[in-house]
Write a structure and sequence with these properties.
The structure is a homodimer.
Chain A lengths: L7 H11 L16 H19 L3 H7 L2 E3 L2 E3 L4 H10 L18 H14 L1 H20 L2 H13 L2 E6 L15 E4 L5 E11 L8 E9 L10 E7 L1 E3 L5 E4 L2 E6 L10 E13 L6 H37 L23 H33 L3 H36 L11 H10 L7 H12 L6 H17 L6 H27 L1 H36 L5 H18 L2 H9 L4 H4 L7
Parallel strand pairs in A: 3-6
Antiparallel strand pairs in A: 1-2, 4-5, 5-11, 6-7, 7-11, 8-9, 10-11
Chain lengths: 596, 596
């Protein structure tokens, strides 16, 4: 049976020692989030996910969801666990107190979402989708819509979904066929088929609030004619409780590679009642409110699966005895040494640590900026924070999920043949992690978003929120004897990123295919430099703590060793990525399509 | 439903145009293998795997094997398909005519094994393991053993297995507990439990010939005390047909990530009759005869899964319409362009092509040398060929299977969300391909074999079989105007391999952990340079054909374009790999084991 221990010490390191969230105690939400309070909440969250969610992770994978006559039964234990989740108030942690939430920073919600996904990704997706629906209604809803839906979503009594995809219409939403006919009472009647709707139907909550994209007849062609609707499974009655059943239903659920515990539904809308959310034909903007939050959430899923898989690989590597250290027996009295003595096993474990700890830092670093963008009194600070988040969103979604899958595979590899056997749970991490590279925009789409939208946006303004502070950091520490061995490689990698950026800016301006041809390698290059920055920042904190005579020297020394590993063993990929990102489109595009 | 089309044109290109197998017509086996005969055989093989094996690939995955009361039922259709396989004489293609085989070169067996695995990997493993058993008995068996077992294995009437692993004993065979007690009649009684025994029990054949490693009491400690035994499921009777049931049985089968159609068995030996194969305590040498063949076979599985996955991704990319080319609509009359217009989809497809075609060339290039090592009259030529095969075996096993998994994932990614759904079959390629990185020695073990055994062997003699001809090729074509754009990057990559080799030789000599710390990155660097060499050789052939006015200019132009892609987009990784392979062990090893 795999284990999961909430990585609380490392989260505390990032929140308090690296980003110092206490500095923002004057901001709404933060003033109630003292270090003691945050630590106590996360401690409780760690217990909840460890005791309630994690034991159901393999159960969910083995049983999967069951579909019959339009209804979905979730795996054994999921209902009870969801009730515990609601009773604990976990759904409303970062929600507005006006709607029954606790009003804590989104940053804390970010940390919680790592723990939930790490313990049980398939389960965590049910409430995870509610957060996106909450955000969209909070931002675009009428006062009446807010009053009807937000408290129910915050409490978890109802859950939410996102309905975008149709069989012929995935990335290209312009191809959408679902129609919404306006009614005399101001509502709409929605007709169409949506697929791949996570948590589209289940038995966990009293109602499901579907946010559905559809076209109002007579509107503009393509994506400019898309509107967003609220189509609840049960229409709220006069007292706010679920009333009449809406004419929408789950037609079937998919058999898929992983996340078996989460229902992936075909949803049929048959003249279903829907309420316009935001303006007519402005559905895409409203949907992006959900999508951007969801993309960051998916990035965190990548981190979470990597962490969970790593923890088990580390235990196995310390316990499994096989062979001898090539440097001579380390444990001569035992029949063999633990496999953690082997450099190549170390390579896999260190890669996992360097990614997960670096990604946690970057994820929370970004999470803080989501809060700043929401609540900071200074407009310029809000805009800067928003720019940073917009820039990093595709990087976090793409790089974290690619690495989440890679690390899950490395962790499985540490188990040898035992990793391939279902009972050890390692191959489930791999299968579950795989979806994160695909949904909420496949990673190739993230890369296009980065080079095609985020780089040129406002004349490159977004990029300055990353390049400028990194440049300041590198210059400030170039001569720092303690950090030099880290800052040197990082500065070289940053130089490569700058050169690749210049290539995309110039070649891409003349020919958009040149930018697209560079996009995936560029995104990964960006992710590596971003994690390198975090590692240098973390190393700086660790050195200070060690100088101050910390009572936990092992923790900080491990940070320094892992930072060195990152610079020596992961950052060199930036050289190859720069070469690929600047190689030009010719060798990609010259073959005729028919040759494939 | 996924498709599989045997890549016969490309195999013919490699056999006849690249390696020119006709040059060896004076050698045993080759004289009956004219181009016409070989092409006709492979054409038939393509039909067989396409019509008989491939339609069972998803069936096998969905149904899996069923275990009850010591017996294993294979999935629907497998029995009939296996009979067709035997009737076609496919099992004895490269077997000695003395034992009922057709005596064709192993090279052709290699090509056949790609087709079988590409169509249905789980099925192909049943007869695949028979080849290893055949090879071990042919090389180490007594005349009586050969007469009893080889014709039955060649015809496919009986199948074979390899029994190495025990619950506590995987890579480290020195920990083995299975015992073999000598009997008065010269036979042994074997007692112990073996796990992960592929095809250990099934309903396809009349008998199963288990080759079992066990220790004879009183022998040397550790791996030097291991012997190999033939322990058939049914002891051959006086007339050679299966007689008395041996006291060995399948205890259960594993539930695993993939290859569901192949039974992975726990085998219990309860005083089972076994016959010593090769000398007492010389089991490891005999086992390595099987293992080396098996490792190359596993490498071919990686290639095969990549090819099968690629073919489906290519079709999907040409047919799925979504979005528009960033360079402007390519198919303005349709609602959207096919996704093959997108540079990032091209990146995935081209990576798949560059790997599969390069790996096929290197695999058959190596397969030819297996034949030369067996049948060439000149001793030095035999030794050179054997050196080449020994050197490339870990590279082919490790690099091909890592890339097989990566390419299967890229192909799945081309499908977006549809790739994650079981019915399309793409995620099965990923799950099936994953085992190849693990079994027959996990890829980290292959890397150690390469740096710890193959590089230093006979004072670096093996390496010269690779470095010398590549050096000759590069020098001969350095000034070749047509090849310069390929030879330049390849020469730089080769330089990186040479420098990494020098680092391992010097640092590893002083400290074995330094060589181990470099091993996995070095193996991949080696694989990239080896494929680069093949691409340069293939480009040379293609240029000649185009100059000669070939009737298939598209085929050869695609070779040239793919060669350029490989050099521009895949070979740059060698820069990063050299940096990592020479970074030293410190950042891997400095953390205390307890910190993980």
């Amino acid at each position: 049976m795999p284990v999961y221990n909430a990585p609380l010490r490392d989260i505390r390191f990032v929140l308090h020692e690296l980003i110092g969230m206490e500095r923002f105690a004057n901001l709404p939400g933060f003033k109630d989030a003292s270090a003691d309070v945050v630590d106590a909440i996360l401690e409780e969250a760690g217990k909840f996910v460890g005791e309630v969610l994690q034991p159901l992770n393999q159960v969910g994978d083995r049983e999967g969801c069951k579909f019959a006559a339009g209804e979905v039964a979730t795996p054994t234990g999921f209902r009870q666990a969801y009730q515990t989740y609601c009773q604990g108030g976990w759904g409303g942690l970062a929600a507005d107190p006006e709607h029954g939430g606790q009003g804590l920073p989104h940053l804390i919600g970010f940390a919680l979402s790592e723990l939930m996904s790490g313990a049980n990704m398939a389960f965590a997706m049910y409430p995870g989708l509610s957060h996106g629906a909450y955000a969209a209604i909070e931002r675009h809803g009428t006062p009446g819509q807010k009053a009807s839906y937000l408290p129910k979503l915050a409490s978890g009594e109802w859950t939410g979904t996102m309905n975008l995809t149709e069989p012929h219409c995935g990335t290209d939403l312009g191809l959408m066929r679902s129609r919404a006919e306006p009614q005399a009472d101001g509502s709409y009647r929605i007709t169409g088929t949506k697929i791949f709707i996570s948590a589209g139907e289940h038995d966990l909550a009293d109602n499901i609030v579907h946010l559905v994209l559809a076209k109002i007849p007579g509107g503009p062609e393509g994506v400019r004619g898309i509107s967003l609707f609220i189509a609840p499974k049960f229409l709220p009655g006069a007292d706010g409780s679920p009333g009449k059943r809406n004419t929408l239903a789950c037609g079937s659920i998919e058999h898929k590679m992983g996340i078996h515990g989460n229902s992936t539904c075909v949803m049929n809308y048959d003249g279903a009642v829907g309420y316009l959310l935001g303006g007519a034909h402005r559905g895409l903007q409203a949907m992006f409110t959900m999508m951007n939050a969801a993309r960051l959430g998916v990035g965190i899923q990548g981190l979470a699966q990597a962490e969970a898989a790593y923890q088990n690989a580390a235990i196995y590597a310390r316990e499994r005895r096989q062979g001898r250290s090539v440097a001579g027996a380390k444990d001569a009295d035992a029949p063999a040494d633990a496999i953690v003595v082997h450099p190549d096993v170390r390579r896999m474990l260190m890669t996992a640590r360097a990614f997960t700890e670096g990604a946690r830092a970057l994820g929370l670093w970004t999470g803080l900026r989501i809060d700043l963008a929401h609540v900071h009194p200074d407009e310029r600070t809000r805009r800067d924070a928003e720019d940073f988040v917009a820039l990093l969103t595709p990087v976090i979604k793409g790089y974290f999920t690619d690495m989440g899958f890679e690390v899950a595979n490395l962790a499985m590899q540490c188990y040898g043949g035992h990793g391939y056997i279902a009972e050890h749970g390692m191959e489930q991490f791999v299968r579950d992690a795989r979806i994160a590279q695909i949904y909420e925009g496949a990673n190739g789409v993230q890369a296009l978003d980065l080079v095609g939208r985020k780089l040129p946006q406002n004349m490159g303004r977004l990029l300055r929120q990353f390049f400028h502070p990194l440049d300041v950091f590198l210059q400030a520490h170039a001569a720092d004897a303690g950090l030099r061995e880290l800052v040197g490689p990082l500065a070289r990698a940053f130089g490569r990123l700058q050169q690749a950026t210049a290539h995309i800016a110039t070649a891409g301006l003349k020919d958009a295919e040149e930018a697209a041809a560079a996009s995936s390698d560029y995104l990964r290059l960006f992710g590596l430099v971003a994690l390198g920055w975090m590692w240098a920042e973390m190393a700086k904190v660790a050195q200070t703590k060690l100088k101050e005579g910390s009572a936990e020297p092992e923790f900080y020394r491990a940070k320094l060793a892992t930072a060195r590993f990152f610079m020596e063993r992961m950052l060199p990929d930036t050289a190859a990525l720069q070469a690929k990102a600047t190689a030009g489109k010719r060798s990609l595009m010259e073959l005729d399509a028919a040759v494939f």
